[in-house]
Amino acid sequence: PVIRYEIKDFLQMDYATKASLDLVENARSGKKQGSLFWLLDETKTAMGMRLLRSWIHRPLIDKERIVQRQEVVQVFLDHFFERSDLTDSLKGVYDIERLASRVSFGKTNPKDLLQLATT
């Protein structure tokens, strides 16, 4: 199911707050290492990495939705073998979001289509 989100569903933080919290990069070094994103990032695809980054930049404020996310994480933690199989499967997934963007701008090439077919 599609879940709709509105701006009121997220904690609003200005740039200075995000920077001082080292959410996606270390304020001192400017590098990803040492940030919350660096600590949490075990994503296997570019799409997953972008999703995690957006969740960190725009954290939910609704307790119910936060608990739902935590429950999904718990399922993955509780099912090691299934998680391992999923991890292996995701290694071959092409960046569908990027392809959709390329299609919308008319910038696709045969390699993109081949990657999509093998995903």
TrEMBL record:
<feature type="domain" description="DNA mismatch repair protein MutS core">
    <location>
        <begin position="16"/>
        <end position="118"/>
    </location>
</feature>
<keyword id="KW-0067">ATP-binding</keyword>
<dbReference type="GO" id="GO:0030983">
    <property type="term" value="F:mismatched DNA binding"/>
</dbReference>
<keyword id="KW-0547">Nucleotide-binding</keyword>
<keyword id="KW-0234">DNA repair</keyword>
<comment type="similarity">
    <text>Belongs to the DNA mismatch repair MutS family.</text>
</comment>
<keyword id="KW-0227">DNA damage</keyword>
<protein>
    <recommendedName>
        <fullName>DNA mismatch repair protein MutS</fullName>
    </recommendedName>
</protein>
<dbReference type="GO" id="GO:0005829">
    <property type="term" value="C:cytosol"/>
</dbReference>
<dbReference type="Pfam" id="PF05192">
    <property type="entry name" value="MutS_III"/>
</dbReference>
<dbReference type="InterPro" id="IPR007696">
    <property type="entry name" value="DNA_mismatch_repair_MutS_core"/>
</dbReference>
<dbReference type="GO" id="GO:0006298">
    <property type="term" value="P:mismatch repair"/>
</dbReference>
<dbReference type="InterPro" id="IPR036187">
    <property type="entry name" value="DNA_mismatch_repair_MutS_sf"/>
</dbReference>
<dbReference type="GO" id="GO:0005524">
    <property type="term" value="F:ATP binding"/>
</dbReference>
<keyword id="KW-0238">DNA-binding</keyword>
<comment type="function">
    <text>This protein is involved in the repair of mismatches in DNA. It is possible that it carries out the mismatch recognition step. This protein has a weak ATPase activity.</text>
</comment>
<dbReference type="GO" id="GO:0140664">
    <property type="term" value="F:ATP-dependent DNA damage sensor activity"/>
</dbReference>
<dbReference type="InterPro" id="IPR045076">
    <property type="entry name" value="MutS"/>
</dbReference>
